[in-house]
Amino acid sequence: MSVSIGRLGTRARVLIALGPVGLSILIAVLYLQVAISPSSTAQPFTDATTYQAAGERLNAGEAIYALQPGDRQVVILPWISNAPLLSPPLIAVLWRPIAALPFGYALWIAACWVALLGTTFALVFRTGLLGAILAAILAPAIGEQLAEGNVAAFFPLLMALAWKLRDRPLAGSIVGLLASLKLTPGTLVGWLVGSRRWSAVAGMIISVGVMVVVSLVGSSLAAFGDYLHVAATARPSIASLSGLTGISWLSPGVLVAGTLAAIGLGRWPRAAFVVGVTTSVLGTPALYLSGWVTILAVLAPFAASADDSALVTSGGAHHATGPSAAASASDAASRASS
Questions:
Q1: For residues 271 and 314, is the Cβ–Cβ distance under 8 A?
Q2: Residue 31's domain spans which residues?
Protein backbone atom coordinates (compact mmCIF):
# COMPACT_ATOMS: atom_id res chain seq x y z
CA MET A 1 0.00 0.00 0.00
CA SER A 2 2.82 2.38 0.87
CA VAL A 3 4.44 2.16 -2.56
CA SER A 4 1.18 2.72 -4.40
CA ILE A 5 0.49 5.82 -2.34
CA GLY A 6 4.00 7.04 -2.91
CA ARG A 7 3.63 6.72 -6.67
CA LEU A 8 0.63 9.04 -6.69
CA GLY A 9 1.67 12.48 -7.84
CA THR A 10 0.84 15.58 -5.85
CA ARG A 11 -1.85 16.66 -8.32
CA ALA A 12 -3.53 13.23 -8.15
CA ARG A 13 -3.50 13.25 -4.36
CA VAL A 14 -4.97 16.76 -4.28
CA LEU A 15 -7.82 15.69 -6.57
CA ILE A 16 -8.44 12.54 -4.52
CA ALA A 17 -8.56 14.58 -1.31
CA LEU A 18 -10.90 17.18 -2.80
CA GLY A 19 -13.47 14.49 -3.60
CA PRO A 20 -14.72 13.71 -0.07
CA VAL A 21 -14.25 17.35 0.95
CA GLY A 22 -16.56 18.53 -1.85
CA LEU A 23 -19.07 15.77 -1.12
CA SER A 24 -19.15 16.73 2.56
CA ILE A 25 -19.75 20.40 1.73
CA LEU A 26 -22.61 19.45 -0.59
CA ILE A 27 -24.24 17.34 2.12
CA ALA A 28 -23.79 20.15 4.66
CA VAL A 29 -25.50 22.62 2.32
CA LEU A 30 -28.42 20.20 1.88
CA TYR A 31 -28.76 19.84 5.65
CA LEU A 32 -28.73 23.60 6.11
CA GLN A 33 -31.32 24.11 3.35
CA VAL A 34 -33.66 21.73 5.15
CA ALA A 35 -32.99 23.40 8.50
CA ILE A 36 -33.83 26.91 7.27
CA SER A 37 -36.94 25.92 5.31
CA PRO A 38 -40.17 27.42 6.75
CA SER A 39 -41.73 24.00 7.30
CA SER A 40 -38.76 22.65 9.26
CA THR A 41 -38.74 22.32 13.05
CA ALA A 42 -34.93 22.11 13.05
CA GLN A 43 -32.48 24.98 13.16
CA PRO A 44 -29.10 25.47 11.49
CA PHE A 45 -26.02 24.93 13.62
CA THR A 46 -28.07 23.43 16.44
CA ASP A 47 -25.18 22.50 18.70
CA ALA A 48 -23.38 25.80 18.25
CA THR A 49 -26.59 27.55 19.32
CA THR A 50 -26.77 25.26 22.35
CA TYR A 51 -23.24 26.27 23.35
CA GLN A 52 -23.95 29.94 22.72
CA ALA A 53 -27.01 29.80 24.95
CA ALA A 54 -25.03 28.06 27.72
CA GLY A 55 -22.33 30.73 27.55
CA GLU A 56 -24.98 33.45 27.68
CA ARG A 57 -26.58 31.88 30.75
CA LEU A 58 -23.21 31.80 32.52
CA ASN A 59 -22.53 35.42 31.58
CA ALA A 60 -25.92 36.34 33.04
CA GLY A 61 -25.15 34.49 36.28
CA GLU A 62 -27.67 31.73 35.61
CA ALA A 63 -27.44 27.95 35.89
CA ILE A 64 -25.97 26.09 32.92
CA TYR A 65 -28.34 23.15 32.95
CA ALA A 66 -31.69 24.94 33.30
CA LEU A 67 -33.56 27.49 31.20
CA GLN A 68 -35.07 30.67 32.58
CA PRO A 69 -37.71 32.91 30.97
CA GLY A 70 -36.05 35.11 28.39
CA ASP A 71 -33.15 32.73 27.75
CA ARG A 72 -32.18 31.84 24.20
CA GLN A 73 -34.23 28.85 23.15
CA VAL A 74 -32.40 25.67 22.18
CA VAL A 75 -33.40 22.31 20.76
CA ILE A 76 -34.19 19.88 23.58
CA LEU A 77 -34.74 16.17 23.02
CA PRO A 78 -37.09 15.18 25.88
CA TRP A 79 -36.71 11.47 25.16
CA ILE A 80 -33.00 11.95 26.00
CA SER A 81 -33.10 14.67 28.65
CA ASN A 82 -34.89 17.90 29.46
CA ALA A 83 -31.59 19.66 30.13
CA PRO A 84 -30.57 22.40 27.65
CA LEU A 85 -26.96 21.13 27.68
CA LEU A 86 -25.64 17.58 27.99
CA SER A 87 -21.90 18.32 27.92
CA PRO A 88 -19.58 18.98 30.89
CA PRO A 89 -19.41 22.59 32.14
CA LEU A 90 -16.14 23.28 30.30
CA ILE A 91 -17.79 23.91 26.93
CA ALA A 92 -20.09 26.53 28.48
CA VAL A 93 -17.11 28.20 30.13
CA LEU A 94 -15.17 28.28 26.87
CA TRP A 95 -18.20 29.87 25.22
CA ARG A 96 -18.45 32.74 27.72
CA PRO A 97 -16.09 35.03 25.73
CA ILE A 98 -17.35 33.67 22.41
CA ALA A 99 -20.95 34.47 23.32
CA ALA A 100 -19.93 37.97 24.39
CA LEU A 101 -18.36 38.77 21.02
CA PRO A 102 -20.68 40.07 18.27
CA PHE A 103 -18.85 37.88 15.74
CA GLY A 104 -18.12 34.99 18.12
CA TYR A 105 -20.82 32.69 16.76
CA ALA A 106 -19.72 33.14 13.15
CA LEU A 107 -16.08 32.67 14.17
CA TRP A 108 -16.94 29.33 15.82
CA ILE A 109 -18.78 28.07 12.73
CA ALA A 110 -15.92 29.11 10.47
CA ALA A 111 -13.41 27.40 12.77
CA CYS A 112 -15.47 24.19 12.73
CA TRP A 113 -15.54 24.15 8.93
CA VAL A 114 -11.83 24.93 8.55
CA ALA A 115 -10.75 22.40 11.18
CA LEU A 116 -12.92 19.52 9.95
CA LEU A 117 -12.54 20.05 6.20
CA GLY A 118 -8.85 20.87 6.53
CA THR A 119 -8.20 17.71 8.52
CA THR A 120 -10.21 15.63 6.06
CA PHE A 121 -8.20 17.00 3.16
CA ALA A 122 -4.83 16.57 4.90
CA LEU A 123 -5.46 12.99 6.04
CA VAL A 124 -6.80 11.88 2.66
CA PHE A 125 -3.94 13.65 0.86
CA ARG A 126 -1.45 11.69 2.94
CA THR A 127 -3.20 8.32 2.85
CA GLY A 128 -4.44 8.30 -0.75
CA LEU A 129 -7.23 6.03 -1.91
CA LEU A 130 -7.66 4.26 1.42
CA GLY A 131 -8.25 7.57 3.16
CA ALA A 132 -10.52 8.78 0.37
CA ILE A 133 -12.73 5.72 0.70
CA LEU A 134 -13.08 6.15 4.47
CA ALA A 135 -13.72 9.90 4.16
CA ALA A 136 -16.32 9.32 1.44
CA ILE A 137 -18.12 6.81 3.67
CA LEU A 138 -18.04 9.38 6.48
CA ALA A 139 -19.16 12.26 4.22
CA PRO A 140 -22.78 12.20 5.51
CA ALA A 141 -21.45 12.43 9.07
CA ILE A 142 -19.01 15.19 8.13
CA GLY A 143 -21.76 17.10 6.33
CA GLU A 144 -24.12 16.86 9.29
CA GLN A 145 -21.35 17.90 11.66
CA LEU A 146 -20.66 20.99 9.55
CA ALA A 147 -24.36 21.85 9.79
CA GLU A 148 -24.41 21.29 13.58
CA GLY A 149 -21.31 23.12 14.81
CA ASN A 150 -20.55 20.60 17.55
CA VAL A 151 -17.21 20.72 19.34
CA ALA A 152 -16.55 17.22 17.95
CA ALA A 153 -15.76 18.93 14.63
CA PHE A 154 -12.34 19.62 16.16
CA PHE A 155 -11.77 16.07 17.40
CA PRO A 156 -10.20 14.56 14.24
CA LEU A 157 -7.70 17.42 14.13
CA LEU A 158 -6.87 17.22 17.83
CA MET A 159 -6.54 13.44 17.78
CA ALA A 160 -4.31 13.59 14.71
CA LEU A 161 -2.14 16.13 16.55
CA ALA A 162 -2.04 13.85 19.60
CA TRP A 163 -0.70 11.06 17.38
CA LYS A 164 1.87 13.32 15.73
CA LEU A 165 3.07 14.56 19.13
CA ARG A 166 2.75 11.16 20.79
CA ASP A 167 6.19 11.20 22.43
CA ARG A 168 5.62 14.59 24.04
CA PRO A 169 3.58 15.60 27.10
CA LEU A 170 1.46 17.78 24.80
CA ALA A 171 -0.14 14.64 23.34
CA GLY A 172 -1.51 13.79 26.76
CA SER A 173 -2.61 17.38 27.27
CA ILE A 174 -4.70 17.10 24.11
CA VAL A 175 -6.26 13.83 25.31
CA GLY A 176 -7.05 15.49 28.65
CA LEU A 177 -8.75 18.40 26.89
CA LEU A 178 -10.83 16.04 24.73
CA ALA A 179 -11.89 14.01 27.76
CA SER A 180 -12.82 17.19 29.62
CA LEU A 181 -15.06 18.26 26.74
CA LYS A 182 -16.82 14.96 26.00
CA LEU A 183 -15.55 12.28 28.44
CA THR A 184 -15.58 9.41 25.90
CA PRO A 185 -12.24 10.34 24.20
CA GLY A 186 -10.73 9.34 27.53
CA THR A 187 -10.41 5.88 25.96
CA LEU A 188 -7.19 7.19 24.41
CA VAL A 189 -5.55 6.93 27.83
CA GLY A 190 -5.37 3.21 27.05
CA TRP A 191 -3.17 4.00 24.05
CA LEU A 192 -0.88 6.23 26.12
CA VAL A 193 -0.59 3.79 29.03
CA GLY A 194 -0.24 0.69 26.86
CA SER A 195 2.56 2.21 24.78
CA ARG A 196 4.26 3.48 27.97
CA ARG A 197 4.21 7.12 27.04
CA TRP A 198 4.45 8.22 30.64
CA SER A 199 5.27 11.85 29.95
CA ALA A 200 2.09 12.06 27.87
CA VAL A 201 0.11 10.37 30.66
CA ALA A 202 1.44 12.99 33.06
CA GLY A 203 0.47 15.69 30.57
CA MET A 204 -3.04 14.28 30.42
CA ILE A 205 -3.43 14.28 34.20
CA ILE A 206 -2.21 17.87 34.42
CA SER A 207 -4.48 18.89 31.55
CA VAL A 208 -7.57 17.38 33.19
CA GLY A 209 -6.67 19.15 36.43
CA VAL A 210 -6.29 22.48 34.65
CA MET A 211 -9.61 22.01 32.83
CA VAL A 212 -11.37 21.25 36.12
CA VAL A 213 -9.96 24.44 37.64
CA VAL A 214 -10.93 26.47 34.57
CA SER A 215 -14.44 25.01 34.73
CA LEU A 216 -14.78 25.78 38.44
CA VAL A 217 -13.52 29.34 38.04
CA GLY A 218 -15.69 29.94 34.97
CA SER A 219 -18.85 28.36 36.40
CA SER A 220 -19.32 26.92 39.89
CA LEU A 221 -19.11 23.77 41.97
CA ALA A 222 -22.90 23.53 41.73
CA ALA A 223 -22.58 23.27 37.95
CA PHE A 224 -20.58 20.07 38.37
CA GLY A 225 -23.31 18.66 40.59
CA ASP A 226 -25.94 19.61 38.03
CA TYR A 227 -23.92 17.96 35.26
CA LEU A 228 -23.53 14.74 37.21
CA HIS A 229 -27.31 14.65 37.67
CA VAL A 230 -27.89 15.26 33.96
CA ALA A 231 -25.34 12.61 32.97
CA ALA A 232 -26.87 10.07 35.37
CA THR A 233 -30.44 10.63 34.24
CA ALA A 234 -29.97 11.16 30.49
CA ARG A 235 -31.12 8.27 28.34
CA PRO A 236 -28.97 6.91 25.51
CA SER A 237 -29.63 8.06 21.97
CA ILE A 238 -31.44 5.72 19.62
CA ALA A 239 -28.31 5.30 17.48
CA SER A 240 -26.05 4.31 20.38
CA LEU A 241 -25.32 0.68 21.20
CA SER A 242 -27.34 0.97 24.41
CA GLY A 243 -30.20 2.61 22.52
CA LEU A 244 -30.19 0.00 19.76
CA THR A 245 -30.07 -2.99 22.10
CA GLY A 246 -31.87 -1.73 25.18
CA ILE A 247 -28.88 -2.83 27.28
CA SER A 248 -28.10 0.21 29.42
CA TRP A 249 -24.57 -0.86 30.35
CA LEU A 250 -23.44 -1.77 26.83
CA SER A 251 -22.15 1.65 25.74
CA PRO A 252 -20.20 2.27 28.98
CA GLY A 253 -18.98 -1.31 28.81
CA VAL A 254 -17.57 -0.73 25.32
CA LEU A 255 -15.69 2.32 26.60
CA VAL A 256 -14.12 0.31 29.40
CA ALA A 257 -13.37 -2.69 27.18
CA GLY A 258 -11.88 -0.45 24.49
CA THR A 259 -9.61 1.29 26.98
CA LEU A 260 -8.38 -2.05 28.32
CA ALA A 261 -7.92 -3.39 24.78
CA ALA A 262 -5.83 -0.34 23.88
CA ILE A 263 -3.65 -0.96 26.91
CA GLY A 264 -3.20 -4.58 25.85
CA LEU A 265 -2.22 -3.49 22.34
CA GLY A 266 0.45 -1.12 23.62
CA ARG A 267 3.24 -2.98 21.82
CA TRP A 268 1.52 -1.97 18.58
CA PRO A 269 0.91 1.78 19.09
CA ARG A 270 -0.96 2.25 15.81
CA ALA A 271 -3.44 -0.51 16.67
CA ALA A 272 -3.85 0.83 20.22
CA PHE A 273 -4.57 4.33 18.89
CA VAL A 274 -7.11 3.05 16.35
CA VAL A 275 -8.91 1.02 19.05
CA GLY A 276 -8.97 4.02 21.39
CA VAL A 277 -10.42 6.30 18.71
CA THR A 278 -12.97 3.76 17.48
CA THR A 279 -14.31 2.80 20.90
CA SER A 280 -14.62 6.48 21.87
CA VAL A 281 -17.26 6.65 19.14
CA LEU A 282 -18.89 3.24 19.52
CA GLY A 283 -19.13 3.58 23.28
CA THR A 284 -20.72 7.01 23.53
CA PRO A 285 -24.28 6.89 24.88
CA ALA A 286 -25.07 10.07 22.91
CA LEU A 287 -24.19 8.78 19.45
CA TYR A 288 -25.60 10.50 16.38
CA LEU A 289 -24.57 10.42 12.74
CA SER A 290 -22.42 13.54 13.14
CA GLY A 291 -20.45 11.88 15.93
CA TRP A 292 -18.88 9.43 13.50
CA VAL A 293 -16.53 12.15 12.18
CA THR A 294 -14.11 11.25 14.96
CA ILE A 295 -13.34 8.00 13.08
CA LEU A 296 -11.37 10.13 10.60
CA ALA A 297 -8.59 10.21 13.18
CA VAL A 298 -7.81 6.51 12.62
CA LEU A 299 -6.04 7.65 9.43
CA ALA A 300 -3.46 9.64 11.40
CA PRO A 301 -1.08 6.72 12.16
CA PHE A 302 -1.04 5.80 8.48
CA ALA A 303 -0.47 9.36 7.29
CA ALA A 304 3.11 9.17 8.60
CA SER A 305 3.67 5.98 6.58
CA ALA A 306 2.34 7.73 3.50
CA ASP A 307 4.76 10.60 4.06
CA ASP A 308 7.63 8.13 4.12
CA SER A 309 6.34 6.33 1.02
CA ALA A 310 6.19 9.60 -0.87
CA LEU A 311 9.97 9.37 -0.96
CA VAL A 312 9.65 6.32 -3.24
CA THR A 313 10.02 7.48 -6.84
CA SER A 314 10.26 5.79 -10.18
CA GLY A 315 13.99 6.34 -10.05
CA GLY A 316 14.46 4.35 -6.86
CA ALA A 317 13.99 4.51 -3.10
CA HIS A 318 15.53 7.10 -0.82
CA HIS A 319 16.08 6.78 2.88
CA ALA A 320 13.48 8.57 4.95
CA THR A 321 14.79 11.33 7.15
CA GLY A 322 13.40 13.97 9.43
CA PRO A 323 10.33 13.81 11.69
CA SER A 324 8.64 10.89 9.91
CA ALA A 325 11.70 8.68 10.21
CA ALA A 326 12.17 9.73 13.81
CA ALA A 327 8.53 8.90 14.57
CA SER A 328 8.90 5.47 12.99
CA ALA A 329 12.06 4.84 14.99
CA SER A 330 10.24 5.95 18.13
CA ASP A 331 7.46 3.42 17.53
CA ALA A 332 10.01 0.69 16.89
CA ALA A 333 11.83 1.54 20.10
CA SER A 334 8.54 1.56 21.99
CA ARG A 335 7.66 -1.91 20.73
CA ALA A 336 11.13 -3.21 21.50
CA SER A 337 11.03 -1.95 25.07
CA SER A 338 7.60 -3.45 25.75
A1: no
A2: 2-337
